[in-house]
Amino acid sequence: MRFDVVTIFPAMFGPVFQQGVIGRAVERGMLELQAHDLREHTHDRHRQVDDMPFGGGPGMVMKPEPVIEAVEAIRARNSGPVVLMEPWGELLDQRVAAELANETGLIIVCGRYEGIDDRVRAALNAREISIGDYVLSGGEIPAMVLIDAVARLVPGVVGDPGSLAQDSFSDELTGWPQFTRPAEYRGMTVPEVLLSGDHARIKQWRRQQAAQRRVPQRKELKKT
Ligand code: 9D3
Predict the structure, then answer these.
(1) Does the C-beta of 53 come closer than 6 Å to ligand 1?
(2) Are 145 and 201 in a shared domain?
(3) Rounded Cα distance, 9 and 39, in Å
(4) Does residue 164 surpass a pLDDT of 90?
(5) Is 87 among the residues known to form the active site?
């Protein structure tokens, strides 16, 4: 799967795409990730990517032409849908990530300032996605979150498919309490059942613990 990101801060993406599961998948050629500098698609001397909002008001708005021309340049290599990272977008969840993982690629535009000129959304038939109801300073970190969530669903990216979606999405999020050696540390012990070797009892204990984690702070993590 191919991810092309349009941003005024392409350097933010280098280190993130070189680490861990994603970094290894890039090295193995399963994923292609490229960050494109929006300023490369300006035509004026000041390489201006923003301008004052029509109608007045504070802040600046991302100009439409550099964004549309950047996406047009990427189109030759990436036929996937365009996603605009915007704080008012559709909330990212595992269902949205799984849907996007079916694509051969994504073209992701990171918003900055007060937002992107609204003609871009219509012109590119773009989907707007937010990662949650809190205010960040731009769409770059949200784009990294989206790429991580989608990329690990691409077959072969996560080495052990058993560590992916075991029984359900909510189980994958919830999991159960984990312990490793030593069996006792400063008087704190590991639940006896995990040392018992009784796999049926262990499975039952883990299911019950996972259910308990969904109560009370995350009641919305129902079985799906
Ligand atoms: C009142 C005007 N605000 C937007 C309706 C201004 C504004 C706040 C924050 C404009 C841009 C931003 C920067 N955030 C993002 O670009 C962003 C974001 C976020 O802040 N939270 C969660 N998901 C995302 S995706 C992109």
Answers:
(1) no
(2) no
(3) 10
(4) no
(5) yes
